[in-house]
């Protein structure tokens, strides 16, 4: 199987082929996501919400991200594996940003890192890239800054924030980032960024006129059903399928239907 590289993602943008990206946090799910042909697997710090049940992405640690990422890497044959650098292990300190990135690459075997922010983290990005580690940017509704925003509503609706976002995207491109995620911003603004910047722009809640899309796998599969923003499409309703199957198992154990003779030694 031919592995996806950052260069191939750039070629996909050039020829107008949309890039598919999904999260995964564990071996079994990553195997399914990779086999289904997803181009980029993100070991997102959304693991903090989806895997650990935290309200925000802030509590997850670098060690925990490395555990999730190494599990995913062992399952993947084709996709490019990108790993989020968690809150508190890169902001405001470029040598710590580099150290965290090196730990991720060395200990998990991931192929690239992603961090949130624009011009403020320029120095960190340059330093990580100088070590030969590919970097994906993340702008718009950056969940590690949720307490600054105070709300999960759409970002960059006002002119000033939109201009700052465009200028940040250009900074990330100039630094040498291979791609940028744009989260929950107006579709028109995302389209403008994708046109004005030559690297692939991956959207989540950023409309159709970008170079690719990303979703959280548990949201797409309908496992997490309380979370239903406008940008999310449920491709399955696994919550019901899973609880029905488990309910049936409980019934069969209680009624002594399971295990039967053929299921016994
Ligand atoms: O952590 C995550 O899942 C993400 C995506 C939503 C882009 O950063
Ligand atoms: Na993230």
From TrEMBL:
Stretch forming the signal peptide: none
Catalytic activity: (6R)-5,10-methylene-5,6,7,8-tetrahydrofolate + 3-methyl-2-oxobutanoate + H2O = 2-dehydropantoate + (6S)-5,6,7,8-tetrahydrofolate
EC numbers: 2.1.2.11
Binding site for 3-methyl-2-oxobutanoate: 45-46, 84, 114
Pathway it works in: Cofactor biosynthesis; (R)-pantothenate biosynthesis; (R)-pantoate from 3-methyl-2-oxobutanoate: step 1/2
Superkingdom: Bacteria
Pfam families hit by this protein: Pantoate_transf
Enzyme class: transferase
Keyword Oxidoreductase included in the entry's annotation: no
Annotated positions binding Mg(2+): 45, 84, 116
Gene3D superfamilies (UniProt xref): Phosphoenolpyruvate-binding domains
Co-factor: note: Binds 1 Mg(2+) ion per subunit.
Cofactor(s) demanded: Mg(2+)
UniProt family annotation: Belongs to the PanB family.
Binding partners and assembly: Homodecamer; pentamer of dimers.
Free-text function comment from the UniProt entry: Catalyzes the reversible reaction in which hydroxymethyl group from 5,10-methylenetetrahydrofolate is transferred onto alpha-ketoisovalerate to form ketopantoate.
Protein known as: 3-methyl-2-oxobutanoate hydroxymethyltransferase
Name of encoding gene: panB
């Amino acid at each position: 199987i031919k592995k996806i590289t950052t260069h191939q993602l750039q070629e996909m943008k050039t020829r107008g082929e949309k890039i598919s990206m999904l999260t995964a946090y564990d071996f079994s799910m990553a195997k399914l996501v990779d086999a289904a042909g997803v181009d980029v697997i993100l070991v997102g710090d959304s693991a903090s919400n989806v895997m650990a049940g935290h309200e925000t992405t802030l509590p997850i640690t670098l060690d925990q991200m490395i555990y999730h990422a190494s599990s995913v890497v062992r399952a993947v044959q084709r996709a490019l594996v990108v790993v989020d650098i968690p809150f508190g292990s890169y902001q405001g300190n470029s040598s710590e940003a580099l150290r965290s990135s090196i730990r991720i690459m060395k200990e998990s075997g991931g192929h690239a890192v992603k961090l949130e922010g624009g011009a403020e983290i320029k120095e960190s990005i340059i330093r990580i890239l100088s070590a030969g580690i590919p970097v994906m940017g993340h702008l718009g509704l950056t969940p590690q800054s949720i307490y600054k925003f105070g709300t999960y509503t759409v970002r960059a609706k006002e002119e000033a924030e939109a201009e700052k976002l465009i200028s940040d995207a250009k900074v990330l491109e100039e630094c040498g980032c291979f791609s940028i995620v744009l989260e929950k911003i107006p579709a028109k603004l995302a389209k403008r960024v994708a046109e004005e910047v030559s690297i692939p722009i991956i959207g989540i809640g950023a409309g159709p006129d970008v170079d690719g899309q990303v979703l959280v796998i548990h949201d797409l599969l309908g496992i997490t059903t309380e979370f239903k923003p406008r940008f999310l499409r449920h491709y399955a309703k696994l919550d019901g399928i899973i609880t029905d199957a488990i309910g049936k198992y409980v019934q069969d154990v209680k009624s002594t239907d399971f295990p039967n003779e053929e299921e016994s030694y």
